[in-house]
Amino acid sequence: MILSDVVLQICQVLCVLLLAPLLQGFILKAEERIQRSRGPSIIQPYRDLWKLFHKQSVVPESASWIYFIAPLIAFTAMLIVPILIPVLTDRPLPQSDMGDMLGGGMILTLGSFAIILAGLDSGNVYGGIGSSRAVMLAILAEPTLILVLVGISLLAKAMLPFVVNHLLLGSPSIYWSPAHLFLILAFFVLLLVETDRLPIHSPTHLEIYMIDEARILEYSGPLLALLKWASMMKQFILYTIFCNVFVLPWGMSQIGTSLGEIGSVVSLLAKFLLVALVVIVIETVQSRLRFYRYQEPLAAGFMFAVLAIVSSQLL
Amino acid sequence: MFLAHVNPLQASIFSSLAVVSLLLTFVMLGSHWLRNYVYAFAAQSWMIAALSACVGYFAGYPELYMIAILTALFRGLVLPYLLLRIIGRLNVKRELHAVLQPSSSLVIGAFLVIFAFVIANHMNSQSLLASRVVVLALTIMLSMKFLGFLMLTVRDEAVSQILGLLVLENGIFLGSQILVPGMPLLIEIVILFDLLIVVACFGMLVRFLVVHAGTTSSRQLNRLVG
Question: What is the ipTM metric for this complex?
């Protein structure tokens, strides 16, 4: 049975929505296992979300309308991005031409921009600190992101992630070219920074280290659940881009049968397993950098992106 | 000329070896530990030795095997050993007072690579060698030279200045291996022995610094002493 394109597109969004907590749960569990403790259950993030959705919401007196609307913007933005990228199928589905890679990057950034505003909104001190740190990181990470997108579009001569996927599948010489390998390294640095991992983000949430957690300290109940879910979805989306567009373009459904879709979900999970294991190893062996050394990994990422662009001119 | 007709496999081998040695220069630029510099330099020399062996094999210059062996032996083993001995005796482990932080020097290095690429592209468009490997080799040669100059300028520990010089020289050597593979054996040997002398002289200078100025940092030397 061949599913229609609209159904497939809905499946893509649902896949991101429903499997994002599973990825988070797996990473948390595996980190604890590596440290030889038992760790939370792999479905603990689902339970947390369920609990938060059934709790009462407490709103600070100083909060304005931004406080209420920011979680909705962040969550909606994360629902839009899966439409634009290849999650399950390797061909464009309806509405995937709404935006190219820069458009997807903008929508991802819009979500975190809304949370930054929310952190500033209530006037809480920690919210302000979190927002200012997040903005500093964004300033450092954004040039690398733009350069990575420019580099991959120079390779593929197109701004669409589907084209990149086909190109990497079709020509091993481009896959193993230095330009592409440097782009993978640069995007991997971004992946670590944007998904709240070490060497920048601390896994324990103490106030002095907090970046992303500090912005949402004032939230509780369903709104907090939306924010947490949005950040898990952001992680899932970035992993998807990293796997399906950059590193492992294989194993995606081409025709769109329901069996093929299930197969591509399974292969997506297998790819995430690989990437997550690498991330977990890095989280275990790395210590958190001092605040004034945050720019070092990002400068390395920037350098990789520049080298990728220079060597893509030589292909 | 050999480079005008390389096949894609040879081109990819050359370019990956060259690019990895450029990356090792960035490792030296982004680290503060003197030992890391020496290890990166040794690895880079092995890369260059492999490169000259490959060029010798594909282009049919048997004397390049000799040069590859000498490079691996001298630049890959003897020079790093001597440098490690100097570092061990000096009791300095890391660059303390660098003018630039590692992250800023990485970003400046990235821009220097772009600059080198622009120059190489320009040089290539004037001559008629339309091969991409030529541009790559020129780019990497120039950028390794620029990065060597950058290391010489922003570092003031005496040992890292030797390494800056050595990186500069490695860059020229790498470029010459790809661009003019038939360079006479004698010149190469002379260059290798020159390097040994450079390191020996620097070793003596560093000792002189420690004895007379009580420091290993060259920044202390900008004061006139009567």
Answer: 0.77
Q: What dihedral angle (degrees, nearest 10) is formed by the CA atoms of B126, B128, B131, B135?
A: -20
Identify the closest residue of chain A to B31 by CA–CA distance. Answer: A296
Residues A182-240: tens digit of each pLDDT: 899 999 999 988 887 777 777 777 777 778 788 888 888 899 999 999 999 999 999 98
**Three-class secondary structure of residue B131 per DSSP:** coil
Contact with chain B for residue A202, Cβ under 8 A: no
Look at A307 and B136 and tell me if their CB atoms are within 8 Å: no
Whether residue A312 contacts residue A155, with contact meaning beta carbons closer than 8 Å, is answered with: yes
Instruction: Spell out which residues of chain A touch residue B111, defining contact as CB-CB under 8 Å.
Output: 306
Size of interface A-B (CB pairs under 8 A): 57
DSSP string, chain A: -BPPHHHHHHHHHHHHHHHHHHHHHHHHHHHHHHTTS----TTHHHHHHHHHHTSPP---TT--HHHHHHHHHHHHHHHHHHHHS-SSBSS--TTTTS--HHHHHHHHHHHHHHHHHHHHHT--HHHHHHHHHHHHHHHHHHHHHHHHHHHHHHHHTSS-HHHHHHHHHH-HHHHTSHHHHHHHHHHHHHHHHHTT-TTTS-SS--TTT-SHHHHTTT--HHHHHHHHHHHHHHHHHHHHIIIIIII---S-BSS-BHHHHHHHHHHHHHHHHHHHHHHHHHHHHPPPPPGGGTHHHHHHHHHHHHHHHHHHTT-
In the beta sheet, which residues pair with residue B157?
A: B217
**Hey, is the C-beta of A310 within 8 angstroms of any chain B C-beta?**
yes
pLDDT tens track for B77-132: 888 888 888 888 777 777 666 677 778 888 899 899 889 988 888 887 766 555 67
Residue of chain B whose alpha carbon sits nearest to that of A178: B16
Nearest CA in chain B to A293: B103
A270 touches chain B (CB under 8 A): no
DSSP B8: H
Q: Got the DSSP string for B33-76?
A: BHHHHHHHHHHHHHHHHHHHHHHHHHHT-THHHHHHHHHHHIII
The residue type found at B27 is V
Q: Which amino acid is at A313?
A: Q
Chain A residue with the nearest C-alpha to that of B17: A178
Q: Where are the domains of chain B?
A: 7-218
Interface test with A, best of B106, B114, B135 (most A CBs within 10 A): B106
Tell me which residue in B106, B121, B139 faces A303 most closely, judged by beta carbons.
B106
Q: Are residues A306 and B113, on separate chains, in Cβ contact within 8 Å?
A: yes
> Tens digits of per-residue pLDDT, B22-60?
888 888 888 878 888 889 889 999 998 898 888 888 878
**Chain B contact present for A307, CB below 8 A:** yes
Contact across the interface for A314 and B132, Cβ inside 8 Å: yes
The beta-carbon neighbor of A299 closest among B107, B117, B139 is: B107
